[in-house]
Structures are given as C-alpha cells and as structure tokens.
Specification:
With about 270 residues, this protein is α+β, with helices and mostly antiparallel strands. The protein is about 50% helix and about 10% strand.
Length: about 270
C-alpha cells in the first residue's frame, strides 16, 4: 500500500517484509491469522521490542516472506510514544483495515530512517518522496510539538537534518526550521559499510546514545549495548559464532579489534 500510494507502483519501492500494525489486544488473533496463511516459522522475539515475526518459504526464492506484527512503533522504555494517536487519525481502507494518515506516515517513515541510521539510499528516498507529495500536509510545528511530547524530537531532528543537509533542494519544497548544524553523519556510510574511521564511530556514538530526549532513555540504551540480549547478539555476530557459549566474549573481542583498527590502521578513501 505504501509503495502504490506514494511511489505509484507496488514494484517501485522494494521491501523485505510485510509490516502490519495491530492493536496489542488483538495479537493472538493476528498470530492465528498469519499462521493459517502459512506463516508458521516464528522468529525469536527480542525482549522489549514491539513486534513479532512469522515467515514462510517462497518457491524459487532463497529468502522467505516475512510478516511482522507490530503493536507499537518504538520501544516503550526509550520514548513516551502514544500509538493510540495514530489509530485515532488512521483512515479507513476496508471494513477492518485502516491506513496511517499522511502526517503520521511521514512521522513514522522519519523514525524508520532514524532506526536504521539512514544507512541505505532507500531511507532518503522514502522521506524525499513524501516531502515531494505531501509538503502541504506536513506541519513541522505540529510534528515538533508531538515529537517533544513523545520524547522523539532528537530522533526526528537528527534524521531530517541529515536528509536536508544531503539534499538542500528540499528547502525549496518544504523548509525545515529545526535543523541541527553539528551533524557528524557521513554521506558514504552506506557505500562503505566496513570502513572504519573516527568520524564513523563518532556518528555511531551520536546515533546510538545521544538520539534520546532524556538521560534515562540514553542510559537504558547504553546498558542494552553493553549487555545485549541473546536475540540482539545474533545480529552482531557472524553465523559461525552465534551458537557459541562465549558469545559475549566474542562480541567484546570484535568491538575491541574494530577500535584498534580505527586508531592504528590507515583507512582507504
């Protein structure tokens, strides 16, 4: 629906899974529904997260099709987000199906870009496309007020500041009055994902620990990074090390080696 409505065709904007927002009270019903459609491979749930995932194999594809059931858009312990506000302004599509309002779609897609630290061109394209199409429907003053209440304002400002910095023509379409001037993000971060530099680590620290509106939220995220859950470890380690009983030791070693490379080995480019 997002691709068709905002990009003009279902194939114009690729996606790796299907995200469905549901009411938390309907989670078990939704799980039964997706399982009845063949999505019976459940991924391990990550503690504190706001979604669960179910997959099924697709003939001729190495990658299974995944449905993510979301009952929220952010972790509860790092924001004061009010998902009910999104439901109240959602627009009916069919009898039991709604879609986010244009304003909340832009809010959500900006948070989505932040969540991935804009590490792919597609996150820029999402925001730019919405600005081109919805510039008259996006109220930055309202967004600033809502994000301040929700404790997401640093995330919104950081994300949109980077997008406007890289694409200054957007000021002619919709001026963003809350830009951050001291942006560390590197424009080639998605071109050279394995490149290590002091600037890249400074960007990581700014994104990982200083994107939060309260010291408490930053502290929670720092603790999570220092002592990640079992599920989070899987995303940080190579496949051959994910089942090791020394996963935390291996992760610490990996981080230490990366820091040594950053300070003592020359970088290319």
């Amino acid at each position: 629906m997002f691709a068709e409505k905002y990009f003009g065709h279902i194939g114009a904007r690729p996606t790796s899974d299907i995200d469905v927002l549901i009411k938390a009270a309907d989670l078990e019903k939704a799980i039964e529904c997706v399982k009845s459609l063949g999505f019976d491979a459940e991924k391990e749930r990550i503690p504190g997260h706001f979604h669960c995932s179910y997959s099924k194999e697709i003939p001729g594809s190495r990658i299974p099709l995944t449905v993510e059931l979301h009952w929220d858009l952010l972790k509860e312990n790092t924001a004061s987000f009010q998902i009910d506000e999104f439901w109240k302004q959602a627009l009916p599509v069919k009898k039991h199906i709604k879609e986010l309002s244009s304003y909340h779609t832009f809010y959500m897609i900006s948070l989505h870009g932040w969540r991935h630290n804009l590490d792919s061109p597609k996150y820029f394209l999402d925001i730019i496309q919405l600005l081109h199409l919805l510039h008259d429907e996006i109220d930055y003053s309202l967004l600033f007020q809502d994000a301040t209440r929700h404790k997401t304002i640093k995330r919104i400002i950081r994300t949109l500041s980077i997008v406007y910095q890289q694409f200054p023509h957007l000021d002619q379409i919709k001026k963003f009055p809350y830009k951050r001037k001291n942006i560390i993000w590197e424009s080639n971060s998605f071109k050279k994902k394995n490149r290590k530099s002091i600037k890249k680590y400074a960007d990581f620290i700014d994104y990982q620990f200083f994107s939060y509106d309260s010291a408490r939220h930053s502290f929670i995220e720092m603790l999570k990074w220092i002592a990640p859950s079992e599920a989070d470890l899987v995303t940080h380690l190579e496949k051959d090390k994910q089942k090791s009983q020394f996963k935390y030791v291996l992760l610490s070693k990996k981080r230490f080696i990366n820091v040594v490379k950053m300070f003592f080995l020359p970088t290319k480019g």
